[in-house]
């Protein structure tokens, strides 16, 4: 179906990303002819697609309706909520609403693509009320693993929805305002039609833990370490960085930062008034000037990213920083699903260099998640008492488990968010009313292309099967005028007497003769038929299906 024009008594919800995967959150609310977008994020690339680093929602179903979009509200500055704005804004062209910190992060991204002067960014304050088109919105403070996380209470003439954004319950968040539980408790009296809620950790029992819980274990580990201490964490987790810096300083260690994004995020945080009570950080170049037991190094690359700081240190390719025997590497971060192999490879390298590796365990909690576990979800239901729960922000298994969990917790109606499935929240019982086109766009060089694009299919084929390109130069009677030119890249190993290119050349020289007898001397026919024959013998000999192009040039 096409994107409908919501009537004055209607309230609709449409997720186009983040409901069926972790990442690339993109949600829409529709009322009185207008749409409000909440978040616009990316997800990590899929190794299946080779060079692709990031992917984002395909917004084809709303592009033609850009003039009915009132605005884009950003709940916080994590990449899965903000990272697609500079890619997709040219198709939306709507005003953006963000807190100070998210706006600062966004402006730097917009500058990278030369859009900073075109985009209207409105700074919103936590605990304030704003109006975006027909939507009256109250911004309520939450706690999460980044500063200034917010939820949105979206009121319309057709009803009120509570959009949680990413959250957890942390009464001691260490930095920032934390969750406004007093305000949230009052929502139970405000007839909340639906709560659109984070499902990431619905499979986790208990609670996620407080930022305060990591202070003691981290202090103990750093106190007992003799050499350099490296702590790897997410650059956007400014709170953790603040916690670590305070611990380091209290133990007589100066604090250094390693990794471009770590410096970028701290610069933004300082510009927004955070981290002001910390002394300047030691630069990467100056680390060597400090005794090993007088420095704490906070670095990026906890996921084993090839270009991440920690991976470069592990491989001995970092310009300024080395690691050696008796050094300690603390992973104050979680393993993002899919990164297990690259992390363990990096940890093996670090271990070879003699480093002591420490990860978070139940007995030694050095990382806490930013998303609500079961008990926190139940607490939030009891504060808000929504009539309907809509589960978003998770893979399908998380979303379905969240629906089941909510129904078991006295929520009378729970609906799974599904990318592209339009839900009518009012009037009447909330229900699915149609499917809209949706999918993924991936960044390919300077372009945004769909997952099904021909170029991706070709690259995929080349990655696993290689490619073969053959050119024949013939006269009018299809006699070869020279040896065929053949390039077989990535097809098979050259073994002394078995060179794949020679094998293909010999086949072509033989095969062309068969067409003389048949008298079918037509260029297209021979090209097609020889391509098929070549595919067949390559399959038989090498068990491969390469990307194959064969062309015949006739010299008159
Ligand atoms: Zn987040
Ligand atoms: Zn998120």
Count of alpha and pi helical runs: 15
Poorly predicted spans: none
Record field, number of beta strands: 29
How many structural domains are formed by the residues? 3
Overall mean confidence score, pLDDT: 94
Largest beta sheet: what is the strand line-up?
9-8-7-4-3-1-23-24
Helix content: 25-40%
* Distance between the first and last residues' Cα: 55 Å
Radius of gyration, CA atoms, in whole angstroms: 29 Å
> Any guess at the CATH architecture of the largest domain?
4-Layer Sandwich
Strand proportion: 25-35%
Please tell me what the overall shape is: globular
Small molecules bound in the structure, each named once: zinc ion
CATH class of the largest domain: Alpha Beta
